[in-house]
């Protein structure tokens, strides 16, 4: 990766925040077309304890099934670190799945790779920790 200014990284992080807002709102509403817009067309997701999933439509289907079968009401994301620049960002953090009773259903570490596509940050790779961690 080329050297980038802290301003470029900050702008990319803000764009990722906007992408997360849209994605998480779409998840809560069950709007899977809007949810999938946060992902690159040819994205790759390495789910915990599962087989790799390719393509934004199949990724949205994975999350839809999780929401439908797991009583998951919302996703909470805490980013610990961002590295990169405008075109490519690596993010590390923790996500929580919260059920309809407002109880923690799952907590795992993740690593995301975001790519700038026409000024919008989209997820091109997601990797999740395989061992569940309860709070």
Poorly predicted runs: none
**Total number of β-strand segments?**
6
* H and E string: HHEEHEEEE
The 3D shape can be described as globular
Radius of gyration: 15 Å
Overall pLDDT confidence: 89
How much strand content do the residues show? 35-45%
- Looking at the overall shape, the CATH architecture is Roll
The side-by-side strand order for the widest beta sheet comes to 2-1-6-5-4-3
| The CATH topology | Nuclear Transport Factor 2, Chain: A
Q: How many structural units, i.e. domains?
A: 1
List the total number of helices. Answer: 3
The termini sit apart by 36 Å
Q: The biggest beta sheet, please?
A: 6 strands, mixed
Assign the CATH class. Answer: Alpha Beta
InterPro entries: NTF2-like_dom_sf
Protein name: SnoaL-like domain-containing protein
Fill in the keyword field for this structure:
single chain; 135 residues; Nuclear Transport Factor 2, Chain: A; NTF2-like_dom_sf; SnoaL-like domain-containing protein
